[in-house]
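Recap from last week: sequence in, structure out.
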Amino acid sequence: RNAPLAVRGTRLAIRKGLGLFANIRPVTLYPSLIDSSPLRPERLAGVDMIVIRELTGGIYFGEKTRTADRASDLCVYTVEEINSAKTKVVLQATHNIDFNSAVVIASPTGSLRAEAGNDINVNAPVTANGGDLDFRAGNRFTLAAVASLDSPGYIDIKTDNVLLNGTIGTD
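Predicted structure tokens:
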């Protein structure tokens, strides 16, 4: 974490080149920070957890730009990367999330959660073969006429405005 940028870039290139997919981070509870946590102290007592974070794509490998007064990192996931998930896929965006290609979470334990500060626009079929579909949009959720949502679990949509023109579920 405190390594120079050149070293961090090298590590990411090695991980990508070798097809490594995870970064393992143990959770450390510092007693001096317990009062700063949004969790109650009794919930933190004896915490023993490891966070496993994927590193196959997204912001780590996206195009980076920097000017004198602005910097950005492009976060891109391919349909194949999302479809190959063996666990819960969580997509988060400050503004919008657009599904413009079919997404099929094939794993029986896989599910999809999309959280957008503004809009979620579904313009293609989105399917979870074993898990749930969960959408959280700060402004609007739109399911286009050519799109569908299908899951044997629950399909949950939470937003201020909903426009449903497509199909939800199957017979």
